[in-house]
Amino acid sequence: MSLSPIIPILLVPVGSAALLALLPGYRLTARLNVLASVLTFLAAVALFVLPRPEPGNYLLVDDLNIVFIVLNCFVGLTAALFSAGYIGHEIETGRLTPVYVRFYHAMYQLMMFGMNLALLSNNIGLMWVAIELATLTTVLMVGIYRTHEALEAAWKYFILGSVGIALALFGTILVYVAAQPVLGDGTPSMVWTRLVAGAPRFDPALLNLAFVFLLLGYGTKVGLVPLHAWLPDAHAEGPTPISAVLSGLLLNVALYAVLRFKMLVAAQPEALAPGPLMIGMGLVSLIFAGFMLYRRRDVKRFFAYSSIEHMGIITFAFGMGGPLANFAGLLHMVMHSLTKSAIFFGVGNAAQVKGTQKFAEIRGLSQSHPALGWGLALGILAIAGMPPFGVFLSEFLIVTSTFARTPALALLLVFGLLLAFGALLLRLTSLVFGPPEGSEHPARAAPVALYLHMAIVLTAGLYLPGPVEHWFQNVARLLG
Amino acid sequence: MERMAFDTAHLLAGGLVLVSFMMIYQDRLQALLNTFTLHAVVLSGAVAWQAWTQAAGHLYVTAAIALIFKAIIIPSALTRIVQRLGIHREVEQVVGTGLTMLTGMGLVALSIVLMLHVTSKATAFAREDLAFALSVVLLGLLMMVTRRNAVSQVVGFMSLENGLILAAAGARGMPLVVEISVAFSILVAFIVIGIFLFRIRERFDTVDVRALDSFRGERR
Q1: A427 in a structural domain
Q2: Contact assessment for residue B151 and residue B138, using Cβ atoms and an 8 Å cutoff
Q3: In angstroms, what separates the C-alpha of A207 from chain B's closest C-alpha?
Q4: A60 phi-psi bin (left φ>0, alpha ψ -120 to 50, beta other)
Q5: Where are the domains of chain B?
Q6: Tens of pLDDT along A389-416?
Q7: A169 and B198 in contact by Cβ < 8 A?
Q8: How many domains does chain A have?
Q9: Nearest CA in chain B to A133
Q10: How confident is the model over A171-192, as pLDDT tens digits?
């Protein structure tokens, strides 16, 4: 246990959060933030190499969450890199003061801690507390600019997030009530591995009700329609590194929680099948977001709706279930995280050089800032589902597996995908091509993180290495 | 003795639902805060009673948190905010009190029917407790959607949270209840500090959420 990488994965973020809160000087703290993220990422990678610890009462490492932890730490690291340049610009323009930056870095690490803890937890109570912590820290960061819009976004996020969290807790309590007669009083009835083992003997009616509450509660955090209202505001008004982390990671963490409970309910054959509920919410989110994309004038808000759309696709895929759809869902989750955070890195740079987030005032990036403009174009093409990127692969798999089973649903799915595709191409032409508009100052930093992410997404689309594919298939079977 | 334990738990949980209804028709902020204090006191009693009947020492901590934090610290902090911001006036409601009360009754009926149906195999203790707890949760949600004022939304959220603590305390032997109530207290403390720190009054001249809406990013 002493060699276990779990300990640094959790302790490095907490320790550095405390340290960053105390240290002055934004250059130093930005570097330390990156360093802490590198250490956490290395520890996460070590999970693959070192033997896994036995699942305890609180923590667990298995095939499912290891993917998420590594992804989480990786995007956490690239976002920290991006954030270092971004924050420097914000200090120079006076949008943030050094005191706020200190606070920001501490919150950043605390958020990483909350997400890692949620992913590692084997205890449904602990998972709930961790997700609450991650929510709370992001609320504070969304409101950090203290403008009217930022405060409104933070407040809305806060209220809706709290309601979601409260509903999720009620669902968690119901799971406990269902488990307690079978597994006995106390901690065993909250340990996920034991819950899954005992689930066939749980009261199905209670599990049904619990799942509805959990889906609504954590679904609020995933950004599923009709509980999505906080998401576009929070993405648009917060600092862009946080938008990247919100879209790329926090939504995944919430969806991961839904998946865990889905596996639990699926283990009791007499309980209602969780699939149709997830399919319904997924499709509604996809099509609703598809329509909403056309009316956005704010770049970050636009891509926030695109996140709702993709979360809808992923929820749909997991709702369909079966090895192929689950495989595609998992792959899409990873590809979406990487691509969307890359897009936010690009958008953040573009918004900083142009000094605005409005589509109308950001045009012709490929001429004024070639590296940034082409990187962003790659990202938008990828997220729209164009081959040869990884997103195409996963969307293709979702569509074909759905066509094979229920063609009617597949038609709706394709309709939603095409809607979003149209909106994305429309915006791509105005953002990247045409005569440049606004400031032509060179960007502060080269978009390294953006190209790194896009390289991974492209590689995954062209060639998925055998062990990785095997791994995903294994997890997909686990998900049932 | 078993009977007595059950009846008292029933009485206290039912009392919590009653106080939730009382909060719905309060139309002044100060009165609302006073009623919330009563809500927290009743919750504290209900949790302490559960602690005694289940012989679960850790629940006394939750009861104490409810009493000290929610019945004393938070109401007095919110009272100060209300006075500082000068919003003793009437609370605006989106829909009328009568309609809200009727909706509330419907919600309570719904949760009782739902929970009693679903928990047919659980013990009577847990069943009644969960039914009442869900009622309190739904009434809290109702209050959050029918009020426009930020302070009363916070109060609505806290009453919702009281319902959750009641449910957690009633679930026999549930671990982490103390941790969860601490986590919730931190959350609430953040909201209250947030109202202070972000100086919603200074920036908006009101804590009316409708005013926040007018600053929406997506202006057309």
Answers
A1: yes
A2: no
A3: 9
A4: beta
A5: 2-86+94-213
A6: 999 999 999 999 999 999 999 999 999 9
A7: no
A8: 1
A9: B183
A10: 999 999 889 888 888 888 899 9
